[in-house]
Amino acid sequence: MNISKNWLAAYIDLDGLNTAEMADMLTFAGVEVEAMHERGVNTDLVVVAQVMQKTPVEGSDHLNVCMVDAGEGSLRQIVCGAQNYKVCDKVPCALPGAVLPGGWQIKEGKMMGHASCGMLCAASELGLPDKEHGLWILPQDYKVGTPVRQFTRTDTLFELEITPNRPDLLSHWGMARELAGITGRSLKTDPGDILPPTQPAGDGIRLSSPEICPLYTATRISGVKIAPSPTWLAERLIAIGLHPINNVVDITNYCLFELGHPLHAFDAAHVQGALHIRRAHSAEHFTSLMDVDYVLQESDLVISDASDRALALAGVMGGKDSGVTEQTTDIILESAWFLPSSVRQTSRRLGLSSDSSYRFERGAAAWNVLRAAGRAVQLILECAGGKAEPTAVAGQAPCTVPEHQAAQATVLEQGSGAKVFCALPQVQLGWKELDVMTHATIPHMEAARILRNLGLREATPGCWDCPPWRLDLKRSCDLLEEVVRVYGIGNIPPTRTAIYVPETPQDRAHDFRCELSRHLAGAGFWEVQTFKLIAEQSADPMIASVQYALPIKPLQEGDTIRVALPLSEDHAVLRPSLAPGLLAVAARNLNQGMDVLHFFECGRVFRNTGGGKGKDIESEVLGILMAGKLSPSCWDSLKPRAVEPQHLVAVLESLLPKQTVSITPAKLARDAAALSADILINGQSCGFMARVALNVCRTLDLPQNCYYAELDLRKLQQFVTAPFKVKELPLYPASGRDATLELPATVRHADVLKAVESAKQKLLESCRLKEVYSDPTGEKLATDRKAVTYSFLYRKPSATLTAAEVDTAHGELLKVLAAKLPEVRYR
Amino acid sequence: MKEQIARVQAVALEQIAAAGCMKELENARVAILGKKGTLTQVQQGMKDVPKEDKPAVGALLNAAREAISAAMEARTLELQKQADAAAVAGVDITLPGGSLPAGGLHPISIVREEAVRILRRMGFTLADGPEIEDEWHCFDALNTPPDHPARNEKDTFYFDSGKLLRTQTSTVQARVMEKQAPPVRIICPGSAFRRDAIDATHLSAFNQIEGLYVDHAVGVGDLKGTLEYFLKALFGNNTAVRFRPHFFPFTEPSFEIDVLLQATGQEPRWIEIAGCGMVNPAVFENIDRETGKSLYANCTGFAFGIGLERLAMIRWGIRDIRLLIENDVRFLAQFQ
After folding, report:
1. Which of A37, A44, A46, A47 shows the shortest CA–CA distance to A3?
2. Which chain B residue is nearest to residue A499, measuring alpha carbons?
3. Does A96 sit behind a cis peptide bond, omega within 30 degrees of 0 on the bond before it?
4. With an 8 Å Cβ cutoff, are A526 and B104 in contact?
5. In this complex, which of B132, B153, B329 lies closest to A606 when CB atoms are compared?
6. Does any CB of chain B come closer than 8 Å to the CB of residue A565?
């Protein structure tokens, strides 16, 4: 909301306050100052000047060289680009050295070869509302050389963020009242203190939906003269960014920003018979005063008349044909109360928001209904003339706060002919609670003074009457908040208490994740954080999409979890795997010329267990992607090796130095995977590894050697952090024997290991792959064969093995291998 | 014989001096002291020396051997020194570094870890909760009115199941309190989601750290002392911190916290960094009603939330929040 300092000063004494102090005052009242704008000129260097000559600049279609009389005795040459002035016009002239709003400093200069010693100004350049397009043409009776600031007032506009619990601050009076309460500065006369004479509405107003509109008042004013608003009123509206329209419409707007209660004026000539406040008919049409057609629902509330036409959308906006125009002579002024949730629902559904709906949504005070009517009637009679009938009142002020209904209440009476009763809710404040919350640092006397300044009255000890505008004060904690807020948290001494708390599993999970991340970062991987919402399918390689997810278990229809209303198809589904995000990261960085594509991410993945009908599962996983080169090319290694699957396995093994990592090829490869395998840690499945399908690599423009592994973080943590005991160091030496097996190329390392294991050779301590040889030319070895060399290590814990013992054991082992493996030949 | 010894010694010393490398020196040693070496041969002539001359010739021979050995040793040291110097003579240690693959942590991880480290030192433990939440934990428990704007499907991601992506990590407050009796002193770093279009200052998925301390007689002073300490630890001990009254449904009184930061060449500015407040008694009542226990009836506490993206942006002067999700290595490499 915009607040003008000058306008505010009409209600509260702001003497001696600069804008920074004002901003602080607002800030510590809980009102955030989002921006401040200085309005008007605050310098003597902007003066009235008369244009004496005007010569077009050659070669320019809009510039003129002007000679102006700025009251200096001689003429001043200024190049000007505006079009709306003529010789003899008086305009504001900024002299060199002047600083205009926004910090813009005027200097002497040259434009298209002509000296320009100053600037002729538009109103907007002086921080004033623009009245015309181009230069600000001043009245002829202004004397040249006079500083313009003598004719303009400076002002400061505050753009404020009002929190949703404080609708009472959404007006200048409301803000003044709050600042007075907080600072103790004195408040001037309450402009809403003139209540109009009232009469019962009788048949004149029909309330068909009292649950939404329990109180409606209408004041008929006859014989008004529609005209432009008086300058003081127009200026205040302009100051907060509104455009004056005519006196009656401006006054309804003015009252809204003065007292905070929305009003509406109907042209009485367009209202037939009694006003009828009813729910809209289903599919009823309504044309707003902005000439937009809306289709209404029964949950919307409209103001209609005997013709049953909707004249206005209650609390949101007036209708096209019933508003005040220049022909209007009689008006009906509406001041009413509408249910916040109803106005909000209508406003949101139709995408139609107004200053009025904004206030009703947040909760206008019913107490303000007659005050705003009275103030508007007073101003209309003053500015537009006419004769007002007593305000017709239908219904009663609602009590909408459940806590207030239960509480005792003092009743406030408003009106004469027809009375409106406003309950003043009572709230208990326990001093003990205050002492607990503030560690007894706020004296009770001081707390009571703060509450009184905010308009509360202590009805009985510990029980406070709340002012009728503070609908947010419902419970004890609301009063505590007021006391702490106004007393100032700055005045409450800080304390540091702590308790001993046991470590949680989440603490350990966090530590593990940090250690893991540092390990991988040290091993040459970039940690990334990709978006959790991804596309189902996307043609853009840099958009992560589910189609590139690589898990072993196929994704079924309904496995992925889709948000009901995505912002875009690019972010519509919760990621079922980290692979799509990491592939998109690789694609993006490849595009930047990176050829070492090593990335990892730790984070949650999401899946539904039952094709959309089961439970939504969130699990923490680690995803590792390796593609392209193994290391960057550099002057000392011009051709680094390409990434191969064993490099990714080596990374996994480095994470799990004490565990056996085995890779078990999957029977079924996924669409997006050329090869896929289960990762087993000590025989337990903990994740998967895959080579990205080559066609996917082509689509994403990635290198063909793109490998990915995904591991369950919790399982990984279990293995890595499992307790262990050290092994005794061997007392006797081991003996090694190598063996080279010539095998069909299709026999895998895992098959050989399985065969070695099946031999159950007791003396065998370890078996390590030493070399793999194949000959693509087929000269030394058939192309469908390979030669693999293994080193076998034998040891006996109790004695040194003799050569004969080792040879026997080795021979037995080789025999088993020959039997178990197909077409083995020893070399 | 005496002349022979003198001659062999002179020649030997010349040979040693002439040796230009270790190999030549070794050759010289063999030629002098080897089985057929010159000195060895002279020594073999000792048996023909008359008995009375033996002591004198023997002494001479020993002196020659010692002189040769000493020369040999001296030359060895000298040559080794030359060889060592030559071995490193061609090495250019000013060459650029070789090619280890580079890697590093994501900036969000770095700030998260730092904030968590400080808070754990202050006696907070970690807690966690699901990101796919129900309305009760996300809104009802936290005193958000049924028609609050945040509960709209235009502002929050809902699923057809009626569940939603949590809009704040505060959900974990409810999750922890319904399981655990006071005292509670937890933090929860985690993701939250809002249906905001992605631009330079908004992400629809972002990271927060939530904190909660509930016990008997926790006061506003504790909130202030705790968060001041935390923010000073994070931003530097001289950082000014201020608490501005604000409004959140789940705390009362509520505050926004600003820190006074100075960018080079700019006036110091108050920058909003976190939200906090005393837990609204309605939250405790909601938990107690849900669990059917009366664990939190006499408790007070404070809660706070801080955005990690914002923290990273302020700390490193990141202007566009999207850099944090694009994972461009040219950006990531700056945090190595």
Report:
1. A37
2. B123
3. no
4. yes
5. B132
6. yes
Strands B125-126 and B184-193, by their bridges, are parallel
| B320–chain A nearest CA distance, Å | 15
**Interchain proximity B329–A526, CB inside 8 Å:** yes
Confidence of residue B89 (pLDDT cuts 50, 70, 90): confident
CA–CA dist A706, A524 (Å, integer)? 16
CB contact A654 to B (< 8 Å): no
Q: Which residue has the tokens 């978006």?
A: A531
d(CA A548, CA A700): 10
Distance from CA of B83 to the nearest CA of A (A): 26
A428 touches chain B (CB under 8 A): no
Using an 8 Å Cβ cutoff, are B166 and A568 in contact?
no
Which residues in A lie closer than 8 A to residue B160 (C-beta atoms)?
Answer: 562, 564
Percent of chain B with pLDDT over 90: 62
CA atoms within a 13 Å half-sphere pointing along the CA-CB vector of A761? 28
- C-alpha of A99 from chain center: 36
Spell out, as residue ranges, where chain A has pLDDT lower than 50: none
- Phi first, then psi: give them for residue A197, nearest 5 degrees: -60, 145
Distance from CA of A584 to the nearest CA of B (A): 9
Contact list, A439 vs chain B (CB under 8 Å): 217, 219-221
What number of CA atoms fall less than 13 Å from residue A760's CA on the CB side? Answer: 1
Per-residue pLDDT at A350: 93
Q: How far is CA A129 from the centre of its chain?
A: 31
Closest CA to B257 of B266, B248, B246, B268: B246
* Secondary structure letter of residue A659 according to DSSP: S
In this predicted structure, what is the pLDDT of residue A238? 84
DSSP string across A147-193: BGGGTS--EEEEEEE--TT-GGGSSHHHHHHHHHHHH-PPB---TT-
Which residues from B are below 8 Å from A501, CB to CB? 123-125, 183, 185
Number of inter-chain CB pairs under 8 A, A vs B: 240
State the number of CA atoms in the 13 A half-sphere of A392 facing the CB: 18
Positive or negative: CA dihedral A688, A692, A696, A701: positive
The pLDDT tens digits of the residues spanning B189-210 come to 999 999 999 998 899 999 999 9
The structure tokens listed for B212 are 């909660």
pTM: 0.85
Q: What would the 3-class secondary structure string for A88-155 be?
A: CCEEEEECCCCEECCCEECCCEEECCEEECCEECCHHHHCCCCCCCCCCCECCCCCCCCEHHHCCCCE
